């Protein structure tokens, strides 16, 4: 809850024919500003999708141009609109995550731009990390989707934009899931100034992964975060793509300062199965 303070000032005072103003009295008014709550309908839909509803909240999601739009935050780094939540469909799910049911259209060339304007611009290090991440995706053999990377500010016409959010606390990134055959458009990163380029590459690769359909590898317990909290499989899906090396996946829910930014063997296998 926020406290907003207001000060009441007297208007005009006349002394010896001269007009002057002084603070006659000060009144502190405590006004409770309630955070907007997630509706019962949306929470029920998320619960039906077996998505953990403990920390679901309405947030002002910052866009590259500094404006904001209202989004729903789930699972720590995934943001969805109300319509996206309401459109979730129920499906059967298996034991271990890799991908959602929503994928990018097969064979699509995804246009991706690294944002370079104003306070939301990627730093030189972040631009390098984005280039490395895109290179890794494009180097995969047998994967039908690819990325076409540019840098600039004209993001409206692009499928995906990667940008810095200077207002977000902590360190990491955020994205969303594909819809209608298109990747999630907005990929934020933040708080990574003190990490090396490989770690930034890891975070960007991870968030691009969400945007093309990956869920967290450890969705079932978030062990990489030191937690034991099931994110749920649900209607967006948590479809097992096999693999025997989840500990080295770029899609673990949390990252460390020792990340090398490269795909694990399971990531590569999963991308070949998905695309």
Kindly report the name of the CATH homologous superfamily of one domain. Collagenase (Catalytic Domain)
Number of β-strand runs: 12
Unreliable spans are 1-33, 91-97, 231-241
Share of helix, binned: 10-25%
Which strand-content bin applies to the residues? 15-25%
Taking Cα atoms only, what radius of gyration do you get, to the nearest Å?
A: 23 Å
CATH architectural label of one domain: 3-Layer(aba) Sandwich
In what order do the strands lie side by side in the largest sheet? 9-8-10-12-11
CATH topology of one domain: Collagenase (Catalytic Domain)
Structural class of the helix and strand makeup? alpha/beta
Indicate the mean pLDDT: 79
Biggest sheet, in brief? 5 strands, mixed
Reading the helices and strands in chain order gives EEEEHEEEHEHEEEEHH
Number of helices: 5
Q: How far is the first residue's CA from the last residue's CA?
A: 45 Å
Q: CATH top level of one domain? A: Alpha Beta
> What overall geometry do the principal axes of the alpha carbons give?
globular
Write up this protein.
The chain has five helices and twelve strands. It has 275 residues and is an alpha/beta fold. The protein has a domain of 155 residues: Collagenase (Catalytic Domain), CATH 3.40.390.10. Strand 5 and strand 6 form a beta hairpin. The protein is globular, with a radius of gyration of 23 Å. The relative contact order is 0.16.
Observed structural traits:
275 residues; globular; Collagenase (Catalytic Domain); single chain; three-stranded antiparallel sheet; alpha/beta; disordered N terminus; 20% strand; 20% helix; 5 helices; five-stranded mixed sheet
């Amino acid at each position: 809850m926020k406290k907003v303070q207001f000060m009441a000032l007297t208007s005009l005072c006349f002394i010896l024919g001269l007009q002057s103003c002084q603070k006659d009295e000060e009144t502190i008014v405590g006004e409770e500003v309630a955070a907007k709550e997630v509706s019962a309908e949306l929470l029920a839909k998320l619960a039906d999708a077996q998505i953990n509803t403990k920390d679901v909240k309405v947030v002002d999601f910052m866009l590259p141009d500094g404006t904001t739009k209202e989004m729903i935050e789930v699972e720590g780094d995934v943001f969805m609109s109300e319509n996206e939540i309401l459109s979730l469909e129920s499906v059967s799910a298996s034991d271990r995550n890799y991908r959602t049911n929503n994928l990018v259209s097969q064979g699509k060339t995804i246009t991706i731009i690294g944002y370079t304007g104003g306070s939301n611009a990627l730093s030189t290090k972040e631009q390098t990390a984005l280039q490395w991440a895109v290179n890794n995706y494009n180097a995969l053999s047998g994967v039908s989707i690819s990325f076409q990377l540019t840098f600039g500010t004209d993001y409206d016409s692009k499928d995906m934009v990667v940008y810095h959010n200077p207002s977000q606390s902590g360190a990491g990134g955020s994205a969303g899931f594909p819809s209608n055959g298109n990747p999630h458009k907005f990929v934020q990163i933040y708080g990574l100034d003190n990490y090396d380029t490989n770690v930034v590459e890891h975070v960007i690769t991870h968030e691009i992964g969400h945007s093309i359909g990956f869920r967290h590898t450890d969705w079932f317990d978030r062990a990489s975060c030191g937690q034991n909290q099931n994110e749920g499989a649900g209607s967006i899906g948590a479809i097992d793509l096999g693999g025997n090396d989840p500990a080295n996946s770029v899609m673990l829910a949390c990252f460390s300062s020792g990340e090398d930014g490269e795909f694990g063997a399971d990531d590569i296998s999963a991308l070949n199965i998905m695309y």
